[in-house]
Amino acid sequence: MTVVPAQTAPAASGGGSSGLYDVLELVLDRGLVIDAFVRVSLVGIEILKIDVRVVVASVDTYLRFAEACNRLDLEAGPRKNPGLPDLVGDMTESGARAKTKGALSGAAQTISDAFTQAHDEAAEEKSGSSTRRRTSTRREEKE
Amino acid sequence: MSTYVYGIAPADRTLPEPIEGIGDPPRPVRTVRSGDLVALCSDAPAEPKAKRRDLLAHQHVVITAGAAGPVLPLRFGGVAPDDATVAAMLAEHHDSYLERLTALEGKDEFNVKVHHDEEAVLHLVVAADPDLRDRHAAQRAAGGGTHEEKIAFGERVARAVAEQERTDAALVERTLAPYAAAAVRGPEDTGRLANLSFLVERERREEFLEAVRALRQENAHLREQVTGPLPPYSFVGTG
């Protein structure tokens, strides 16, 4: 399983580690606990969680920030936000990403199924109607 | 044979299909009843471990059973010695579980994680502080400055970013909370500034998602990641 360290990838996709790690955290750390029950050993899972934590307050970070600032042109203004268009689109994307990664994809998929379906249907409808339009235009041309 | 428990549902819940649980081969899911409640259970594998497929199976059972109404999801990995212990546990907490199920009816969890777009937030904090602006200009003019100057400048910037993280975390919570029935803060991690779970009524889901969209549009330096609808893992406790 690949878990993208939160610090190296955040800006890349707006999703970073996608829905995969989020679902893990909820399934493992939340939910009802019943005292009378024995809990399954979670060895291995803890390691994964530690990997995700990155130490921010370090000389490395200071240098990185300094270098990044050095590249900043304050007059030019920040880059335009590439993630503006659609939030639901992002959720669908993270479902699709999880699918290709193959790790813990099912959960993310299940959750985003509704969104994906809605998204696909909307896309089909769109392309369907434009096809119809095109067909009717052609017909008109024939006539 | 010990019993693995996935979640708790009202006794009149009909399960839509035979559901596969954890284990290899997957153990079939059955119910153990007590009063008006059932526990969604299966036999526990001999040595259950937190394997990926079992985590997914756990999630799958809770989501499938939850399609028709509320389920109190158990945290992954709860094993009872036998069905009788499960029934006794249901009986002991019967009323509080039932009350909780009623409270969760028609609501789902949405997990919202927020981090900064690095370039955008650096721009924001440097531009907002006259002293940082001056230092930034001086250092650019000097081709970046010495190693020590870089570290000193970077540390100041890191502090400003941390401050901005706190400000934005409060902003996210304040902005979205009115659209949710409840909110819970998740564990903090470096690399993100907020990890919040919201309990959202289905009728208000669009409103909630619209509020997230608006937040994003108004704050170009924020990156939100929304996961949901999820079983209400973060809202199983009373309160």
TrEMBL record, chain A:
GO terms for molecular function: structural molecule activity. It is found in: Gas vesicle shell. It holds the Pfam family Gas_vesicle. GO terms for cellular component: gas vesicle shell; vesicle membrane. Residues 75-143 are annotated as: Disordered. Keywords: Gas vesicle. Its main location: other. Residues 118-127 have a biased composition (Basic and acidic residues). PROSITE patterns: GAS_VESICLE_A_1, GAS_VESICLE_A_2. The gas vesicle shell is 2 nm thick and consists of a single layer of this protein. It forms helical ribs nearly perpendicular to the long axis of the vesicle. NCBIfam families: PRK09368.1 (NF006872). Gas vesicles are hollow, gas filled proteinaceous nanostructures found in some microorganisms. During planktonic growth they allow positioning of the organism at a favorable depth for light or nutrient acquisition. GvpA forms the protein shell. Belongs to the gas vesicle GvpA family. HAMAP family: Gas_vesicle_A (MF_00576). This is Gas vesicle protein A. The gene is gvpA1.
TrEMBL record, chain B:
The keyword Transmembrane helix does not apply. It is found in: Gas vesicle. Transmembrane segments: none annotated. One of its GO terms (biological process) is gas vesicle organization. GO terms for cellular component: gas vesicle. It comes from the Bacteria. Keywords: Gas vesicle. The keyword Disulfide bond does not apply. Belongs to the gas vesicle GvpF/GvpL family. This is Gas vesicle protein. It comes from Streptomyces purpureus.
